[in-house]
Each structure stands twice: as C-alpha cells, then as structure tokens.
Amino acid sequence: MIASVFLTSACNLACKYCYQGTHENGRTISRETMDQLLDFLLQHIERNKEKNIMIVLHGGEPLLAFDELRYLIDKARTIIPSAYFSMTTNGTYLTPEMETYLQKELAYLSLSIDGSEASHDRFRLFATGKGTWKKVSAAARRLLLSFPELRARMTIRSENVDNLLHDIIELIEMGFTSISPVPDYFDAGWNEDTLKKLEQQCQEIIKWKGATNCQVDIGFIEDAVRARKYSVCSGLKSTLSIDSEGNIYPCTYLVGNPLMAAGHVKYGINPDKRWDILCKGEQPNPDCIGCSRYEYCPGTRCKLINQLMTGEFDRPSPVLCHIENVKYRSGVFSKRLQLERR
Fold first, then answer.
1. Does the record bear S-adenosyl-L-methionine in its keywords (predicted)?
2. Which domains does the chain have, with CATH numbers?
3. What's the predicted TM-score (pTM) here?
4. pLDDT value at position 296?
C-alpha cells in the first residue's frame, strides 16, 4: 500500500512546469492532522489486510516542513511498525542535519534534476528567476555518497526533448544509477514534430545503452521494454493521497481538486465516493477498444486522470496516447536490436 502525504504546499522554487502552482507561503500540516492521519492509516491497513505501507513524503518542498516530517516519521515508527518512507526533494534546502536524518530514516530518496545545467535551469528556478542547477548538482554529489541508489527524477518537456540522451548521460556521469524520466502530459507543446523527436531520442538512448553495456535503470526506457500490464485503479484502497489539511484523494495528481476529495483523515473515506471511483475504473474506454496496448496503457486504467485532462472519464488524452505509442515502438526497437546482436 502507498500513502502520499503532502506535508506542505509551500515551495522555495518557481518551476515553470509545476502542476501545483506557486505556493511560496503555502499551508503546512499540523500535528493534530498528523496524529489523525496515522490513526486513519492504521485502521485502513487493518481493514484492507495490508501487510505494509510506504509513506511517500510530498510538498511543495517537503524539507520546508522538516520538523513536521521528523514528527510524522518518529511517531509512525511506534504506531505503524511496518511503515517505510520515501521522499522527493528539490535539493536546494538540505542541511547536514537533514541529510543525516534522511539517511537513517528513508528507504528511498529521489532528487528532482532535469539533466544538464541548460536543460535544468530552463524550468527549475528560484523565485528570483535564478537557476537552481549549481545548488542541486552539488546536493546530488553529496547525497550519492550516503544514498548510492538516489533516483534522479527528470521531467521531459517538448522544449528540451532534443537533449534527452545528453541529459541522461550527464546524470550517469554524475553518479546516478537510477533515473526516472517522466514526460509532462500537460505540456501543450507536444505535437507530431516533438513526439517524433521523443521517439528518436528513445531510440538513441537504447542504442547508446547497448553499445556501452550501460546497466543504469532508465525508467521510461525500461518501461518500454518490460511492457507491464496494468490492473484496475486502486485509488482509495491501496493508494491514497492526503493533503496538508487532511483531505483524502485517490492519487497525487488530484490533490487540491475539491471534486475528487473523498474524505478526511478525521472521519475516514466516504464509502459512496470510493465506490463511485472504483466503478469508474471498471468502465471501458470505447475509443480504445481493439488497441493492442489496451491492457498496458495508463489511459485505460487512470480514469480520473482522463477526466482531469479531457473532461471525460472514458476518454484519455491524445498526448498520453501518442506517448504510450512512442513507448511501445521503443520497446519493439529495443527487442529488434537485441535480436540483431545475437
């Protein structure tokens, strides 16, 4: 089970692509809400017979709420012994004290970094407009010493897709062994030309990995090769997202959307709302029936994301559909290269 907890909506950056908006002085979770949250999670685990739970710490920038982060983890250790923790940080607010604590308490840590200085500083800026790469890259080198499996979380945009291979190589040379490039589905710049560039870059990465025998896990590329089937959406059952006020949502993309709020940690999940969401997950997508990727595509699984992007639960975003096709063709390309090398 995965529970994403938004410790604060505050952030010290002003990233141009941030889907959460700019919240420099956002709300931070209270101790009362954290106490209610842990009680709620314990009951939810027991009710659904879950063996363990990963609590993912979100923001804003979660380290702006470091006191709250530490309170939540320390108390969870006594209330939910099976809990383990992960977090994504922008890397600009780290102190030695924080690094020591995180090394001890986190099972997984991700750092938001978009590759080279040029690609990163194009979007990931301080509120002053100054780029953050120098500070983030220095934090990456320090963190990699204590977190060898530190994951680089990249955002792929239409504007920097040309540099994807170069950006990934730069991160590998920095020492990363796990890289998660994530296309921004909300980017209005995706079109026939930029999607073609994405596919070309994927093929270049696959060829480069084969030629260099690179063993680094590159999420988007490995996903293309593995082609994992999706199950029906488990939002509000084995996945939960909870904002800093204690409101409960099915997933992180929907946090803050009042139409998707399904309860509060003080009172629990609204059973009617939960049933409605689970039923929507079972509905077919008429436009997708017959597609060979039907069981592998998030567009047929994530009905709530469909509604967020297109206004209809059973109609996925065309951008998402095209990116999934790029992923599929990249997987075919990879397998063909493997056969040719034998």
1. yes
2. 2-226 (3.20.20.70)
3. 0.94
4. 85
